[in-house]
Task: inverse folding
């Protein structure tokens, strides 16, 4: 083992200060990626700043048609929330399908978004719903936030505090899970909301979550699974690995998109 | 893992060749490269820090240029040890073709990643390698031309 200093600040200002003062300090939001990585000695921060004790970081509420989820809210809390189920049932269902029960009880929405794993589920939902990522310093639209795998608009020391999701007319997610990790081999989120008709894909792209223009165009003209039949999904830019070739993933994108439309 | 690519650089071949043999240029262009020292006419020692998502690994290793056919082609090969993270080794055949005032650079990479990185990060190795290669050539192009590279 190696020594790690654990901080549990009560306020966002204390968290920012602890991050700045620490030795290669990292935010601990749920730890479902970070702690596993540390156990393998693939990351060795000198300081961990646990943000789960900060007031307002946990919880779900609505302000008129906007759903507000605190960054340290767990996947299980989102999945089980009546407020989320009413506002956007597709988002609650997505949270209920992340990892296993242990991951859902510890992992948080802010942690998932800050990490931006290229096969994570939440990025697909945020981009499709045109969500706003709120940090301690600013509000970032999902369109600007996701910048390629494991890369986001977050600055050094910037902490996500909440996400805002405007109520969509329809939204659903369908995931083909990689059997061992339960990450998305291919996951597709479809939404018809204030930001238009959007189709986002996670798990398949070489550079993380992306919008699929062809599927969006087809769904915009007719919201039905059949409307997607004629859409060409190219394997260009898709991952090819031991779990699935690029053309297999391309095929799955269409299958998952149709399932998501049917569920929405 | 195999990877090939082609980049057009708005600079004459002699200039591109010189840059590809200049440790200072390589150090500035290789993503995460902290140190790159010449240890002989064709050998170098490098230290590269990579941060991919939650993983942060420091690789130290030796780099060697072989099959040198100035100013047309060489093979750059090396092996880096990343402590508990594992190791990476590989070779890239680099070829330069003149096209008027410009140069077309093609490369063909064969690389192996081993240890924990390969076990735990297999789904990320290929896309990470592509991303790093793209970043290198963006930097390299910018270094030679003072311009952002054209959209691929």
Result:
């Amino acid at each position: 083992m190696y020594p790690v200093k654990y901080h549990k600040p009560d306020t966002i200002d204390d968290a920012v200060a602890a991050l700045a003062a620490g030795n290669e300090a990292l935010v601990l939001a749920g730890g479902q990626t970070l702690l596993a990585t540390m156990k393998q000695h693939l990351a060795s921060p000198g300081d961990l700043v646990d943000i789960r004790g900060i007031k307002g970081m946990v919880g779900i509420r609505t302000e008129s048609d906007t759903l507000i989820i605190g960054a340290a809210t767990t996947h299980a809390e989102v999945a089980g929330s009546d407020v989320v189920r009413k506002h956007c049932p597709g988002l609650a269902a997505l949270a209920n399908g992340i990892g296993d029960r242990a991951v859902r009880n510890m992992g948080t929405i802010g942690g998932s978004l800050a990490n931006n794993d290229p096969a994570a589920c939440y990025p697909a939902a945020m981009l499709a719903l045109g969500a706003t990522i709120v940090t301690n310093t600013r509000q970032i639209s999902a369109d600007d936030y996701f910048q390629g795998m494991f890369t986001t608009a977050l600055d050094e020391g910037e902490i996500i505090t909440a996400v805002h999701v405007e109520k969509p007319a329809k939204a659903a997610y369908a995931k083909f899970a990689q059997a061992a990790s339960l990450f998305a081999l291919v996951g597709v989120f479809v939404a018809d909301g204030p930001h238009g008709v959007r189709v986002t894909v996670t798990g398949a792209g070489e550079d993380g979550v992306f919008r699929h223009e062809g599927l969006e165009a087809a769904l915009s003209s007719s919201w039905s699974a059949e409307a997607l039949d004629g859409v060409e999904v190219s394997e260009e830019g898709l991952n090819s690995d031991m779990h699935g070739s690029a053309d297999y993933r391309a095929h799955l994108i269409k299958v998952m998109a149709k399932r998501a439309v049917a569920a929405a | 893992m195999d990877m090939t690519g082609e980049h057009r650089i708005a600079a004459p071949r002699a200039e591109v060749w010189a840059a590809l043999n200049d440790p200072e240029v390589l150090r500035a262009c290789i993503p995460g490269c902290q140190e790159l020292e010449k240890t002989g006419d064709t050998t170098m020692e490098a230290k590269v820090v990579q941060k991919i998502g939650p993983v942060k690994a420091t690789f130290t290793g030796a780099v060697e240029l072989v099959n040198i056919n100035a100013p047309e082609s060489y093979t750059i090969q090396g092996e880096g040890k990343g402590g508990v993270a594992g190791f990476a080794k590989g070779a890239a055949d680099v070829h330069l073709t003149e096209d008027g005032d410009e140069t077309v650079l093609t490369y063909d990479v064969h690389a192996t990643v081993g240890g924990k990185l390969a076990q735990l990060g297999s789904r990320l190795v290929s896309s990470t390698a592509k991303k790093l290669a793209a970043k290198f050539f963006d930097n390299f192009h910018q270094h030679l031309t003072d311009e952002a590279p054209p959209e691929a």
